[in-house]
Amino acid sequence: QVPRGPLVLAAASLQESLNAAADTWAAQGHPRPVLSFAASSALARQIENGAPADLFLSADEEWMDHVVKAPGGRIKPGTRISLLTNSLALIAPAQSSIRLTIAPGFPLAAALGLNGRLAMGQVASVPAGKYGREALIALRVWSSVEGRVAGADSVRSAMALVSRGEAPLGIVYATDARADRKVRVVGIFPANSHKPITYPLARLSASTNPDAEGFRRFLASPQGKAIFRAYGFGTR
Amino acid sequence: MSFEVDVSITRGSRRIAARFEAGPGITALFGRSGAGKTSVLDMIAGLARPDEGRIAVDGRALFDAAAGIDLRPEARGCGYVFQDYRLFPHMSVEGNLRYGWRLAAPDARWIDFEQVVEFLGLAGLLAARPRRLSGGEAQRVAIGRALLSGARFLLMDEPLSSLDAARREEIMRVIERIRDELALPILYVSHDRREVERLAGQIVEMD
Amino acid sequence: MSFEVDVSITRGSRRIAARFEAGPGITALFGRSGAGKTSVLDMIAGLARPDEGRIAVDGRALFDAAAGIDLRPEARGCGYVFQDYRLFPHMSVEGNLRYGWRLAAPDARWIDFEQVVEFLGLAGLLAARPRRLSGGEAQRVAIGRALLSGARFLLMDEPLSSLDAARREEIMRVIERIRDELALPILYVSHDRREVERLAGQIVEMD
Amino acid sequence: MALAPDNISPEEWGIIWLSLKVSAAAMVATLPVGFALAWALARGRFPGRVLLDGLVHLPLVLPPVVTGWLLLIVFGGTGVAGRWLAAMGMPVMFRWTGAALAASVMALPLMVRAIRLSLESVDRRLEAAARTLGASPMRVFVTITLPLALPGVLAGMVLGFARSLGEFGATITFVSNIPGETQTLPLAIYAALQVPGQEGIVTRLALISVGLSLVALVASEVLTRRMGMRAHVL
Amino acid sequence: MALAPDNISPEEWGIIWLSLKVSAAAMVATLPVGFALAWALARGRFPGRVLLDGLVHLPLVLPPVVTGWLLLIVFGGTGVAGRWLAAMGMPVMFRWTGAALAASVMALPLMVRAIRLSLESVDRRLEAAARTLGASPMRVFVTITLPLALPGVLAGMVLGFARSLGEFGATITFVSNIPGETQTLPLAIYAALQVPGQEGIVTRLALISVGLSLVALVASEVLTRRMGMRAHVL
Ligand SMILES: Nc1ncnc2c1ncn2[C@@H]1O[C@H](COP(=O)(O)OP(=O)(O)OP(=O)(O)O)[C@@H](O)[C@H]1O
Ligand SMILES: Nc1ncnc2c1ncn2[C@@H]1O[C@H](COP(=O)(O)OP(=O)(O)OP(=O)(O)O)[C@@H](O)[C@H]1O
Ligand code: MOO
Ligand SMILES: [Mg+2]
Ligand SMILES: [Mg+2]
C-alpha cells in the first residue's frame, strides 16, 4: 500500500499556495500530504477535540494560542513557528474609478457614497475583519464607517461582494486581492496600522505520520517559503 | 321526460352502457351488483364523463357529446346520495347538512333544515363528527345533505340500505311527498323489490 | 351456549349495554339505527373494550372484567364482516381475501379459496384494487375475507345490505351451510326481517 | 437561570426580534408559493413536472453558500431581479428582506414536500361530492381540500419556520452579516463560534433559538389538535 | 457537453462516489431511527412528547456549524460517544462515517416529519380489521401500517438524501474537509469557491449535485407510482 502523506489542517485562504507546496514536496519523492481546508476556528476546535491530524497552519495566532492552551497539550512543544505574513488591501471593483490614499483620516466614508457598503470579514470573528477594524481605528476612520460594514463569513465572500459590484469597497488580504482579476487594489494599509498578520504553523501531539516533521521543515525552508512568496505572502 | 339518458363509458376493460327515458316521478334503477348503476349516476351528476351520448333532465341537456355540452357538476343541480355517503370528515353533522344549503339560491330551497333534522332523527347528532356516527346515522346525514342542497333532481344510490324498517318507512313517506308535491325527478337505485315497487313509477333494468 | 354476552360501554355521553345468551346456530342482532349493534360486535371482536362485564363464545371466555381476561383481537378467532367493509386499499382483491387465510393454522381453515371466489362471484375481480370495486363487489370481498380467516365464529354486520336478490339468496345458502355443517356460532346484524327470520334461530333485540 | 428575560441584553433582544421577523416573513411569503408548487406537483400532469420537482429541491441539494451565491447573482444590486425589486421600492440587498428571501428559498422544498404529501392523501371523492352540492372548484378548494390538507400545511409551516430560524449559509453569503439589519441568531452564533472562548455566548444564543422553535412547535401541535385533523373519512 | 462522463476527472468521480456513499449511508442509517421517532410522535402518548419533538427539530433550528460543533464534542476523539465508537472499531472522527453521521443528523428532522405526516393519516380501522384477521401488532405494522405510510417514508427518504447531498456546515465543522475521506460535493464546491476564478468548477460540481438529486427524485416518483400508493380506503 502507498504510504499516506501527513494530514495538514490549514486555513482556507492558503488553498492555492499550500497545494503548490504539497505538489513540490511530492515531486521530491514523498507521499503527497493530505490537505484539509476550512475556517481556522473550525480546525482549531477539531484539534481541541482530538482530531487525528499532523500539522495545523492557522490564519491567526489567537486560534493557535487556543489550541496550545487546550487541556492535554494538543501541540508538540517547540514545533510552533510563525510561517507567513500578509498585508491588508483596500479593494474596489476592477472597473471602479475610486482613488484613495490610505492615511490617517482618509475620506473612506465619502468614497462609499450614499448607500455603499464596506465589505469585510466579520469584524468580530474573521481574522481579516479583525485586522481591518484595527487598522481603521488606528487611522481614525472606523467610527465613520462602522455602520456601513457588511460582514462576510470569509475573506473570499467579502471579495465576492466587491467583485460583483455589490459593495464599492472592501478590505481583504493582499494575497486574495491579487488572485482575483475582477477587483483592483486601491491601496495597502500601512503595516503599523494593525498587529502583524502572521500565520502560525505547528505539529500536533497526535501526529503519527513519519513524514509530518519533514513536511513542516520543508514549509519553513527557503524553498518552501519561496513558494508562498510567489503567491504574495511575506515570510520571516 | 324527466330523465333522458343514452350514454356509455369504459371502465377498465368493460363498457357500461345505459339507455332509457323516464316519465315524471321516481325511476328505479335496478340491476345486479356491478352492473353499472353507480356509474350511470356518476355520469348524470357530472362526476364521470361518458365516452359518448346524451343526458337530459326535465328537458335540460346536461351532457351532449354531439352538441359539445358538458355542464360542470355544480351547474347540474343534482342532489346525490352517495352509496358510500362521502360525508365531510372535518365538519360536524350540521356543517355537512348545511354545506349545499348555503350554496343554494334561497328560492331554490324546497325543504327546511329543521324539517330534515326532524324526520331523519338527527337532532341529537348535529354537533357530532361523521367519524363517530353509526352506519345508519351516516346514511341519514347523507340523505339530508342531498335534500337540503336545493337540487332540481335527486340521485339516490341505495339510500336506505342501512336503515331499520321504521326509519325506512318514515323516509320513504318523505320521498313520496317530494315526488308528489314537488314533482322532482328522482333516480333511485335499490335492491329491494318492495321498496322499488312502492316508490317507483317505472323501473329501468341494467345488465 | 354459543354467545354469552353481558357488557356495557360508554360512547360519548351514551351508555350502550347488551346482555344475552344464545344457543347454537345464527343469532340475529336487531335494533334501530344507532342502537349499538356495531358497538357490541366491536366488543366481541376485541376492538372496543367494555367498561365491565363478560364475553364468552362456545364456552371460551374472551373477556371477563372480574377475572381479568381480555384476549387480544388476533387471539379471539372471529371472522368479522365490517359494516364499512375495511378492505385493505394497497392490496388486490386476492390479497385481501388471502390475508387472514395465510395467518390461519392450516387445520383451522374450513373453506377453500376457490370455493369462496366462486360462490361470491369474485373470479373476474381477483387482480382489482378495492378502490374501483362497486359497493356490492366490495361487500362480497369483505365477506370472503372473513370466511377465509379460519374463524371460530362469525360477526356479520349487515353483510348483504348492498346486494341484489339473486346474490343475496346464494350467499344466504352458503351461510346456512356454514351454520348447519360446521356449527359455527354466527352473530348477524340485519335490518331485514325476512332475512333474519329465515337465517336466525334466535333474535336479540337491542334498544 | 441564565436565560431569564432580564438577563438578555438589549442587543440580544434585537437579534431575537430580527430573527423572528425574518423567519415569520419567510414562512408567510413561502406559504402561497409552496402551496401552489405542492398543488402543481400533486395534481398537475404536465410536461416538465419532474424538472419542476427537481428545481424545488435545489436549495436542499446545493450547499447553502451556493444558493446564497446564486441569490446574489439574481437578486443582487446588479442582478435582473434585484434591480427590478429595487425599482419597485423593495430592495433586498443588505436588507432584512434579503435575509427573509434567503430563508424563504431554503425553506421552500421542505414546505412543498409536506403540503404535497397531505394533498396527495386528500380523498378526491369528497371533492366530487362537494361539486355536486353546488361548490365551484375554488370553493371546493377552500372548504374541502385545504382543510383536509391542513396537517401538511401546518407541518410545512413548522418545518419552514424552523429551517428559517437556523438558516445561515445562504443568508451570510447573500446579504452578509450586518448587525440590526441581517444579523439573525445563526449569524450571531457563527460569529461567536469563530472567536476563541465565546462558547458561553454560543450556548446562550443556541438555547434561545431552541426556545423559539419549541414555542412554534407547541403552537402547531395545539392547532392541529384543536382542528381535530386526525379524523378520517368514514 | 461539459458534463459528459468522460469529461469528469477521476478526482471528481471520487468526490461523486464519496458523496453518494455518504448520502446513501446517511439515508439508510436515519431511516429506522427516523421511523421509530415518527411513530412515537404520531402514536405515542407519553410525557415529554413535545420535548422529544423539539429535540428532533434541533438540527433544523440550530445553524449547521453548531450542530457540527456539538457532534465534535460528543463524537470527537475525546468525546464519550466518540471514544466508545472508536473502541468498537468504528471511529467516526475525520472518517467518511463521520460525514455520514453529520448528514444523518441533519436529515433526521425532515425524515421524521414526512413519515409522521403519513403515519397520522393511516386509517386505524384498517389496522383493527387486520387484527381480527389474526395478525399480531407486529404483522399489522409490516403489512398494513408501513405500506400505507409508504408515501411518507419515500418522501422522507428523498428529503433525507437530498439534504445529505447538500450538507455542508455540520460536516466541515465535525470531520473537516479531507479529500478522499470527508470531502463531499458541497465541501469541494466550498473549496472551489474559496479560490477566485474557479466559478467554472463550482458550476460543474453544482450541476453534478443537481443531476444526482434528480435521479433520486425520479426513482422515488417511479416507486410511488408503481406501488399505486395514491389509493384510498373504500
Ligand atoms: N377503474 C375501473 N377499472 C375497471 N373496472 C372498473 C373501474 N371502475 C369501476 N369498475 C367496474 O365497473 C363495474 C360497475 O361499477 P358500479 O359501481 O357502477 O356498479 P353498481 O351497479 O353500482 O354495483 P353495486 O350495486 O355493487 O354498487 C364494476 O364491476 C366495477 O368493478
Ligand atoms: N365516540 C363516540 N362518542 C359519542 N357517541 C358515539 C361514539 N361512537 C359511537 N357513538 C354513538 O353510539 C351509538 C351506537 O353506535 P353503533 O355503531 O354501535 O350503532 P348501530 O346499532 O350499529 O347502528 P347502525 O344500524 O346505524 O349501524 C351511535 O348513536 C353513535 O353515534
Ligand atoms: O449548511 Mo450551512 O452552510 O451552515 O447553512
Ligand atoms: Mg353501486
Ligand atoms: Mg352499525
UniProtKB/TrEMBL annotation, chains B, C:
GO terms for molecular function: ATP binding; ATP hydrolysis activity. Coiled coil: none annotated. It comes from Novosphingobium sediminicola. The keyword Transcription regulation does not apply. This is Molybdate transport system ATP-binding protein. It comes from the Bacteria. Pfam families: ABC_tran. Gene3D superfamilies: P-loop containing nucleotide triphosphate hydrolases (3.40.50.300). Residues 2-206 form the ABC transporter domain.
Automatic annotation (TrEMBL), chains D, E:
The chain crosses the membrane at residues 15-42, 54-76, 96-119, 140-162, 201-220. Keywords: Cell inner membrane, Cell membrane, Membrane, Molybdenum, Transmembrane, Transmembrane helix, Transport. One of its GO terms (molecular function) is molybdate ion transmembrane transporter activity. InterPro entries: MetI-like, MetI-like_sf, ModB_ABC. GO terms for cellular component: plasma membrane. The keyword Glycoprotein does not apply. Residues 16-223 form the ABC transmembrane type-1 domain. Gene3D superfamilies: MetI-like. It is found in: Cell inner membrane; Cell membrane. The keyword Chaperone does not apply. Its main location: membrane. Pfam families: BPD_transp_1. It is a multi-pass membrane protein. Part of the binding-protein-dependent transport system for molybdenum; probably responsible for the translocation of the substrate across the membrane. Belongs to the binding-protein-dependent transport system permease family. CysTW subfamily. This is Molybdenum transport system permease.
